[in-house]
Write a structure and sequence with these properties.
heterodimer; A: 112 residues; 6-stranded mixed β-sheet; 5-stranded antiparallel β-sheet; B: 116 residues; 7-stranded mixed β-sheet
């Protein structure tokens, strides 16, 4: 089955700096990789995703890169703001893409 | 994306009792899922709720403990049976986005369960 690791578990950055979170997966057949943001007491929100036919995807201040050969994908947040403070989860699919395994999460703190 | 609601939003229950959580979606969806999120932890898939057939459970979860219903394409329930304090968690339903956005999953607001 799929195994997802995520690093770092906690990350503190100064406002305006960049943050990078990395995930590795085990199933070479995986082809879709979402990132979720969960603020305290709220539901996980899908913020960006990438499919295996592209290497990078950007949406304003966030981007995701994928290296299928090395089986890892990363979330990049530029010009961080206090409202970016949250727990971020990556995920990878299994069972023909119907189910997801989530990484353990990264708690990002953006310091003013 | 679909609008997903859950009831109740939170509950405090005594050990040995059962609680049924409802998940309602504002549009028909093929795939619905139930997750558990223990305090400070990640999301763990409990089961896939299949419309018209028995749910598909993940390793470590069984139907007797977590019976699931899926009577139609917009509604599902999860029951947490014979509860113990270890069942204290947030329970979330999620749905797959649909044909135009296959694989994308969206979560309901969650049900925070405390078992005393």
């Amino acid at each position: 089955g799929e195994n997802v690791e995520q690093h770092p578990s906690t990350l503190s950055v100064q406002e305006g700096d960049s943050a990078v979170i990395k995930c590795t997966y085990s199933d070479s057949a995986s082809n879709y990789f979402p990132w979720y943001k969960q603020e305290l007491g709220k539901r996980p929100q899908l913020i960006i995703d990438i499919r295996s036919n592209v290497g990078e995807k950007k949406d304003q201040r966030i981007a995701v890169t994928l290296n299928k050969t090395a089986k890892h994908f990363s979330l990049h947040i530029t010009e961080t703001q206090p409202e970016d403070s949250a727990v971020y989860f990556c995920a990878a699919p299994y069972n023909y893409g119907q189910n997801f395994v989530f990484g353990p999460g990264t708690r990002l703190s953006v310091l003013p | 994306s679909a609008v997903i609601s859950q009831k109740p939003s939170r509950d405090i229950c005594q050990r040995g009792t059962s609680l049924t959580i409802q998940c309602q979606v504002d549009s028909q969806v093929t795939m619905m899922f139930w997750y558990r999120q223990q305090p400070g932890q990640s999301l763990t898939l409990i089961a896939t709720a299949n419309q018209g057939s028995e749910a598909t459970y993940e390793s470590g979860f069984v139907i007797d403990k977590f019976p699931i219903s899926r009577p139609n394409l917009t509604f599902s329930t999860l029951t947490v049976s014979n509860m113990s304090p270890e069942d204290s968690s947030i329970y979330l339903c999620s749905v797959e986005g649909g044909i135009a956005s296959s694989y994308e999953q969206y979560f309901g607001p969650g049900t925070r369960l405390t078992v005393t």
